[in-house]
Amino acid sequence: MNRGSILVADDDAAIRTVLNQALSRVGHDVRVTSNAATLWRWVAAGDGDLVITDVVMPDENAFDMLPRIKKARPHLPVIVMSAQNTFMTAIRASEKGAYEYLPKPFDLTELLNIVNRALSEPKRTSSEQRSEEQPESMPLVGRSAAMQDIYRMLARMMQTDLTVMITGESGTGKELVARALHEYGRRRNGPFVAINMAAIPRDLIESELFGHEKGAFTGAQNRSTGRFEQAEGGTLFLDEIGDMPMEAQTRLLRVLQQGEYTTVGGRTPIKTDVRIVAATNKDLRTLINQGLFREDLFYRLNVVPLRLPALRERSEDVPDLVRHFFIQVEAEGLQAKRISTAGLDLMKRYSWPGNVRELENLVRRLAALYPQDEISAEIIESELQTSDRPSSPPNGVMMPEDLTIGQAMEHYLQRYFASFGDELPPAGLYQRILEEVEYPLVLASMTATRGNQIRAAELLGLNRNTLRKKIRELGVNVYRTSRTS
Questions:
Q1: Read out DSSP for 112-159?
Q2: What is the annotated localization of this protein (predicted)?
Q3: Which of these, 145, 161, 178, 456, could form a disulfide with 237 (CB 3.0-4.6 Å)?
């Protein structure tokens, strides 16, 4: 580990003590202060190899001081911490030239790794500052650990033109993230153009992407510009990329490789300068194995993979999202509302198969249909149960029918762990889960093949003797639909 002199500024005495002890223990020389004035005096005097500072200090905001630090000592890495764990905090830290942003409470091991990396790297020049301040808008909402990871990744991507592949279930906000990458990035003064591959007829996709010349096909009475041309100098968002037909994938790959394209019916190559952001709710690796998606195109698009968490993975963000959507509907002329604590608890336990989009629709429905200022738990329960999915089971967690195996297992394990309260399940969980999955899989295969073990073994990809052994061990009876107790 590279040892150095570290300046720590935080008005919380407990955090100063923890950082002082942890950093000193691994050999760093540490100086701590509770105010920005002392920190600036040290920096201006040339002290310290690295700064760790909270954003909100009693005498000055760190974001106001960062430009002075970067001007005076452009090579000095500054790690910014904040309890205001919002998307804009991460973006402002990046804009002001911070080396790294850490939300509070932070992981001490992660901080030590960042400190070591910062001290080990060659000194960098100051990054280009923005010519104007961005408004304190909130394009993304949530303070959960899952969203903090997203914010930090986005902050790193803002000042690059790297291609980004956003994955996540429907309704998680993939286009919102793509717009944030554009609006807070280097190409913010250029156009943002979005195209949904699933919404365009197969025979028109190439014309939509690359444009066409007059007379290129029946009905082409005039020249038409494509989305690549419209997005010149900006960002092209390719939504639902997994639904792109193979022939269009081939042309897109050629554009990404060569940086130029031709219109449909055209002959002259056109240079292109766009940032590509793609998104899908499908597993592209599965599509590759099925021969439905080009592997080489996948690697061209998957330069920076960014997975958006499902809402059930960040249920602690539900109250913030509810407040955000109520503010929106109030601005649109509807009455201000709030949801009872018990109602919010129900919403946090709900599985949200439609994710944030489903939550937004519920909030709008509550604002429009119910006159009371506070929405009770009874109303929330009724609304969730009467949605287009099965009613809530006794534990309050609702399960939609159209889940993937992985999603169903997520739901099952969430309920399973919750059933133990603050305790952990008994040891041996891995083997128990495998056995739980193995039995219905073998049973379904045997049922589908009408008890033919040779065909079932082929279906499962097992040796017949192996299958026979599993049938015996698991007690599978093809004529029964449930396991005997």
A1: HHHHHHHHHSPP-PPPPPPSSPPP---SS---SHHHHHHHHHHHHHTT
A2: Cytoplasm
A3: 178
331 and 450 together in one domain: no
- 109 in the Ramachandran plot: left (φ > 0), alpha (ψ -120 to 50) or beta? alpha
Domain that holds residue 417: 312-424
Parallel, antiparallel or unpaired: strands 260-261 and 270-271: antiparallel
Sequence-separated (6 or more) residues with CB below 8 Å from residue 94 = 101, 155, 156, 158, 159
322 and 189 housed in the same domain: no
Mind giving me the DSSP string for 399-460?
A: --SS--HHHHHHHHHHHHHHTTTTS-PPS-HHHHHHHHHHHHHHHHHHHHTTT-HHHHHHHH
Does pLDDT of 176 surpass 70?
A: yes
- Position 287 scores a pLDDT of 87
Tokens 């021969």 found at: 291
> Which residues, other chains included, contact 250 with Cβ-Cβ below 8 Å and sequence gap of 6+?
294
Number of domain units in the chain = 4
Three-class secondary structure of residue 339 per DSSP: strand
**CB-based contacts of 270: which residues, under 8 Å, 6+ apart?**
228, 229, 260, 261, 262, 263
Amino acid identity of 393?
P
The pLDDT mean for the chain works out to 83
Residue 239's DSSP bridge partners are 196
Place of tokens 């017949």: 464
The CATH number assigned to the domain holding 20 equals 3.40.50.2300
Q: Cβ–Cβ contacts within 10 Å for residue 341, how many?
A: 10
Residue at 248: amino acid letter:
A
- Mark whether 381 and 400 lie in a shared domain: yes
Is a pLDDT exceeding 90 seen at residue 154?
A: no
Distances (CA, A) of 377 to 313, 343, 349, 364, 371: 22, 4, 12, 17, 15
Residues 86 and 198 in one domain: no
> 229-264: per-residue pLDDT in tens?
899 999 999 999 999 888 889 889 999 998 888 887
Are 483 and 444 in contact by the 8 Å Cβ rule? The answer is no
Domain identity same for 450 and 401: no
373 touches 338 (CB < 8 A) = yes
Contact call for residues 270 and 260 (beta carbons, < 8 A)? yes
